Recover the amino acids of this structure.
């Protein structure tokens, strides 16, 4: 299953809830303000690392927020084409707002 999270983990509990319900075969795509979780040296990047699931960040949202060069190396950055590929790969999807 592909989980998409759109809100900042510093303002909502969406990412926290998502991490609580994911399975090891799931993947997470962080969009919009959720990409702030991918910043180096923050509590969320550390929490995500230990979750054991693959995490993606949308490049365009990182660029729009001026943080593309501050992302932890454990995350994979994808563009819109990568976003579409992930959506095609995962029949089941869950959006967390």
């Amino acid at each position: 299953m592909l989980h998409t999270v759109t809100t900042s983990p510093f303002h909502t509990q969406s990412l926290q809830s998502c991490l609580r319900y994911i399975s090891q075969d799931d993947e997470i795509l962080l969009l919009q303000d959720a990409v702030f979780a991918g910043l180096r040296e923050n509590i969320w990047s550390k929490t995500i690392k230990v979750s054991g699931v693959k995490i993606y960040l949308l490049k365009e949202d990182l660029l729009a927020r001026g943080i593309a060069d501050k992302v932890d190396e454990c995350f994979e950055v994808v563009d819109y084409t990568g976003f579409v590929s992930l959506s095609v790969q995962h029949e089941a999807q869950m959006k967390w707002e």
Summary: The helical segments are 14-21, 43-49, 59-64, 80-89.
